[in-house]
Amino acid sequence: MAIDLRADYDEGYFDKDEQGWCPRCVEVATAGEQVTIRRHGHDNGLRHYDETTVGTIGAAWPELGLVQIIGPRGVLAYFDTHAGRVRSPGEQILHRFHAPAGLDEDGFFAAASAIVASVAAALGVHPGPPPTPVVLPAAVPGCYGTGLESVLTAPGEDGCAWVLSRRTYPDNPEMGVHLDVRVEARGVWVSLFRGDEQQASLLLIGPLERHHLAVAARDQALAGWCA
């Protein structure tokens, strides 16, 4: 059965800096297998834009309400039939939580790597074991000119890379030590970050049709970690 994707909506907003409404209009039309997405709007009358992209209908997951739109370089977008809207293949899910008390740095890297690997697997990539032992290089000034940062990058499996980092702020010691473990792969990014006072976050990016699997893996892994 042919899939007919159609939509016409405004995801604009009121911008106080522009002192008015900034429309962000999206129109979707289908002709056979071809899908046309038009985006147009302006910033309260200034900086008008009007852009059109064309793709073809790809895989569909009716139970999730998702249809892929394929462009020359891969997945151009998804159409959410439940919401009647276009969604980006780079859509993020961010989960903030309080990390277990008393978890030292060595414990963080081991536990965080296991969680990140399980979420990455749910997104369809298998990074393999993280680098061990964790030997971070000498700290250097951070890329944004704040703090000192040690970053260890190591190749994983399945086209993945492991990135482990530690950041300190000598000029602001009250900020504590910031730690991060992430896996990067083709279209997939999973990062577990711990900041001061045990505040933590897990960020995931990957195929939208696997987001529900990744969220379930995240919840299961964090439940085991925080038990």
Can you tell me about this structure?
The protein is mostly beta strands and 227 residues long. It folds into two domains: 7-87; 92-226. The chain has two helices and 16 strands. The strands form three sheets. A seven-stranded antiparallel β-sheet has the order 1-4-5-6-7-8-9, with no helix packed on it. A seven-stranded antiparallel β-sheet has the order 10-16-15-14-13-12-11.
Describe the structure concisely for a colleague.
The protein is 15% helix and 47% strand. The protein has 227 residues and is mainly β.
Largest sheet entry: 7 strands, antiparallel
Number of strands: 16
Q: Indicate the proportion of strand residues.
A: over 45%
Count of individual helical segments: 2
Distance from N terminus to C terminus (CA atoms, Å) equals 48 Å
The domain count comes to: 2
Average pLDDT taken over every residue: 93
Label the structural class: mainly beta
| Poorly predicted residue ranges | none
- SSE string, helix = H, strand = E? EEEEEEEEEEHEEEEEEH
- Overall geometric form: globular
| Cα radius of gyration in angstroms | 21 Å
Query: Reading side by side through the largest sheet, how are the strands ordered?
Result: 1-4-5-6-7-8-9
